[in-house]
């Protein structure tokens, strides 16, 4: 799953694999976000079956690549 920046996920929430919680979303207590679903808005509305299993593969690879690049090129500024 992917949890967007600034989102709030309250207690007893279950988020299924390959799901997305949008940035700044509010997922209410006890909500179940099924696999391959997205939760967007305040409060979050769930749309099922809209995310492909491999939807996050390329963005995750880019994120990992950027982490290696930043780590190699960071220098302390005096």
What's the CATH class, please?
A: Mainly Beta
The CATH homologous superfamily is called Hexapeptide repeat proteins
> Under the CATH scheme, which architecture would be assigned?
3 Solenoid
Uncertain segments? none
Spatial sequence of strands, sheet with the most strands: 1-4-7-8
Helicity, as a percent range: 10-25%
Structural class: alpha/beta
Mean pLDDT: 93
Q: How would you describe the shape?
A: elongated
Strand content: 15-25%
How many strand units?
8
Give an overview of the whole structure.
By secondary structure, this protein is of the alpha/beta class. It has one domain: UDP N-Acetylglucosamine Acyltransferase, domain 1 (3 Solenoid), CATH 2.160.10. It is 22% helix and 23% strand. The strands form three sheets. It has a four-stranded mixed β-sheet, with no helix packed on it. The chain has a two-stranded parallel sheet with strand order 2-5.
Please specify the SSE layout and strand pairing:
Blueprint: E1 2-3, E2 8-9, E3 14-15, E4 20-21, E5 26-27, E6 32-33, E7 38-40, E8 45-47, H1 57-73
Parallel strand pairs: 1-4, 2-5, 3-6, 4-7
Antiparallel strand pairs: 7-8
Any descriptors?
78 residues, alpha/beta, UDP N-Acetylglucosamine Acyltransferase, domain 1, four-stranded mixed sheet, two-stranded parallel ribbon, 1 helix, 23% strand
Short description:
The radius of gyration is 16 Å and the shape is elongated. The protein is built from 1 helix and 8 strands.
């Amino acid at each position: 799953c992917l949890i967007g920046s600034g989102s709030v996920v309250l207690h007893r929430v279950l988020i299924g694999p390959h799901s997305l919680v949008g940035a700044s979303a509010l997922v209410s207590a006890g909500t179940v976000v099924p696999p391959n679903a997205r939760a967007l808005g305040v409060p979050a509305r769930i749309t099922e079956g809209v995310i492909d299993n491999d939807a996050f593969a390329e963005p995750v690879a880019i994120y990992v690549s950027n982490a290696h690049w930043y780590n190699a090129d960071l220098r302390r500024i005096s």
